[in-house]
Amino acid sequence: MNAKRELPAKENAIFKNILRNYEHKQYKKGLKLADTILKKFPEHGETLAMKGLFLNNLEKKEEGYEFVKKGLRFDLTSHICWHVFGLLYRSDKNYEEAAKCYTHALKYNKSDMQILRDFALLQTQMRHYDALIETRTQLLQAKPTNPPFWIGVALAYQLVGKYDIAIQVLEAHESALREQSVNFEQSELLMYHNSLLEESGDIEKALEHLETVEPKVCDKRAWKVKKAEFLLKLNRLEEAETAYRLLISENPDNYSYIKGLIAVKGLNADNLTSEQQSAMLKIFDDIQSDFPRSTAARNLPLNYASGDNFRNRADAYLQSALRKGVPSLFVDIKRLYSDSAKEKIVEELVTGYEVSLEKTGHFNEEQDEKVVEPPTAYLWTLYFLAQHYDKQRKTELALKTIDKAIEHTPTLVELYMTKGRILKHGGDLEAAARVMNEAREMDLQDRFINSKCAKYYIRNDKIEEAEKILGLFTRPDAASPLQDLTDMQCMWLTLEEGDSYLRQGQKGKALKRYHTVEKFFSDIFDDQFDFHTYCLRKTTLRSYVDTIRFEDNLKGSHYFVRAAVGAVKAYTSLADKPSGANGMDEANMSEAEKKKARNKARKAELKAQKENKPPKKEQVKEEAPKKVDVKKPTDEDPEGEKYLKTTDALASALEWVRPLEQVAPKHIQTHLLGFEIYLRKGSMLLALKALVQSWTIDKTNPQVAKNIARFKEAVSANPPANADVKAVIDSQLATLA
Questions:
Q1: The pLDDT value given to residue 618
Q2: Residue 90 covered by a domain
Q3: Which residues contact 638 (CB under 8 A, 6 or more apart)?
Q4: Range name among 38-42, 189-193, 260-264, 731-735 with the lowest pLDDT average
Q5: Given pLDDT bands bounded at 50, 70 and 90, which one contains residue 268?
Q6: What segment(s) does the record annotate as region Disordered (predicted)?
Q7: CB neighbours of 471 closer than 8 A, spacing ≥ 6?
Q8: Phi and psi of 585, rounded to 5°?
Q9: 579 has pLDDT over 70
Q10: The domain spanning residue 94 has which CATH number?
Q11: What is the rounded distance in angstroms from the CA atom of residue 277 to the CA atom of residue 263?
């Protein structure tokens, strides 16, 4: 043992209080106690380390690191010093270095429970599941009476796919539990056990277990759903039908229950014969007769009906929705437009409604004359038709129809929003933004319309106006509307601004926005850290496993894909035509010209800052009454110059594509982006691989055809020297042809 580590009894008691202060988050009090020890023992490593930990939590990060490193120098074999160093790295999200520190700490104290717990959390976060099994097992052996330790071991085995061992661990834990009244924790544990049996592939055993635990399960709905699924998988169709009909009786608008019943009947929705179609529609008719208010029973048949049958069902569904005034009717119906025959029928029906309602006030001539439709039925019919024509890109007709609707009811906000959307699709972005602003001014308390209006201004490259509009709903004490929305991880705004700056040629600002989105995803991934402990304590195990698997595929989100598309465009543009930090093209400039241009840009920037800066006296007068203690974050690189100064633009672009290759290999954009980078880098085999995969996903994509031609041109210009490589390329190109 290090001789300098030993403290007298009085100071040793103070050091124990320091540890308690950290556990209770009393950082200032702990800092004072640490100073009392260091006055007498300035080289006591563990106290120095704890002082550094307190300073780090008091937002004095640099000082904190200095004290912890100093403590380590004085006591290199202290598990406390290494543990504290790991906690500092963990707070900075530097998990690799934190793991190294925990490994060192365990060298000097293999059985410290807190270090083992922290190490297990870190291993879960880093997805080091094999090492996690070992750590969780050590915790369980040290304290087998702690239920979360048993669950932790089972989870670790599940995450590596060893379901049989995970089940054995849970069974051992359940056998040791005392008989309790029905409670949520026990219920969740049993349902988690059942999910392990399901994942192991033993559905028969899973169903048997489900029947056994039914009295102890609180989540009855989840229990019934699982029972129905298991019966269907085991081909016990009569029992499965009973189970699904029970679920439908409880919620007749749940699409998954109805689709489960269809599966029980052995009907393949993709390829129906006329007899099967009749059987399918009879299922919906039966549900509708039993549950007349079920929207799903009237909506879903439209997917499977055809001809006159479809016309009759669509007629009833459309009339009911237009009579009630359902604004989302077209959004609901447009899925049917993939079938041109159904699209034509819908158009015939609704145009007929328009003519008939305008003349007679009825949906059609066959309707009882005594029954008069509400005036709004005509309005919503026009609204539907305008969206219908817009979908067909008949812009003039769509505008004429929506103007007729506005003339009928000039106070309905949705009409102006739809008109703005039609103008946007027609290519008139300025008029679209103007009309959307009219809609916003009609209801200044609606945040959704406010956001829509701002988006249309950004699409028209009027970013400053958009931010002013958004500022109406942001915190008044925020540094700026953009900063407030960035703090709230508002992805759509960040992406729209990035795309706008890219259109304007301001690549630095565009890249800054795309990298902000990338940081959002990193923060979301980091935010799961606290749940590794919480979910074991609260026994929310099924949701926890779902969350871990969701986080593993987080960057497959369309938001990240869209950011990657923009970032790769910007970086490949930089690689094709290098520009300086000021955005000027320096490729064809001499060194003297480059220097002169940079100096000119710097002087212009200083002049602009000077002009915008108020006079000194006025500044003092304005700032005097405003005493704000809160430190507002300052943007040190508003132009995104650091991204423009990248030494290897293609390598920076590749950092965006690699996560997509892992989590979104079936997304065509992944391979289209990869092709752009690999072709420029001269990695012909990788470019060919990306080309083949994009062609496999969607051979009709026009960009794929262009890429094939570009690849052939590149190979012709620089034929591969290696005969084997040439043979592979020729073979694959023949396949693509």
A1: 41
A2: yes
A3: 509, 512
A4: 731-735
A5: confident
A6: 576-642
A7: 480, 481
A8: -75, 115
A9: no
A10: 1.25.40.10
A11: 13
Q: Does residue 297 sit in helix, strand or coil?
A: helix
The answer to whether 304 and 282 have CB atoms below 8 angstroms apart is no
Q: Which residue has the higher pLDDT, 621 or 467?
A: 467
Judge whether residue 406 has pLDDT over 60: yes
413, 446 contact by CB (below 8 A)? yes
Backbone Cα Rg of the chain: 33
341 located within any domain: yes
User: DSSP assignment of 564-611, as one string?
Assistant: HHHHHHHHHHHHHS-B-TTS-B-TT--HHHHHHHHHHHHHHHHHHHHH
Cα separation of 153 and 303, whole Å? Answer: 47
Please tell me the chain's helix, strand, coil percentages from 3-state DSSP, rounded to the nearest 5. 75, 0, 25
Write down the pLDDT at residue 433: 96
Quote the domain boundaries for residue 88: 3-180
Contact (CB, 8 A) for 694 and 707: yes
172 and 320 both lie in a single domain: no
Decide if 256 is inside a domain: no
Tokens 């007899």, located at residue: 275
Q: Name the domain boundary from 165, 180, 195.
A: 180
Q: Inform me whether the pLDDT recorded for 604 exceeds 90.
A: no
| Residue 71 is assigned to a structural domain of this protein | yes
Number of structural domains in the chain: 2
User: Which class for 182: exposed (0-12), middle (13-18), buried (19 or more C-beta within 10 A)?
Assistant: exposed
Of 135, 165, 180, the residue that ends a domain is 180
CB atoms within 10 A of CB 5: 17
Instruction: Examine the domain organization and report whether 25 and 169 are in the same domain.
Output: yes
Calculate the alpha carbon distances from 409 to 323, 474, 513, 551 in Å.
16, 32, 40, 47
The rounded mean pLDDT for the chain is 89
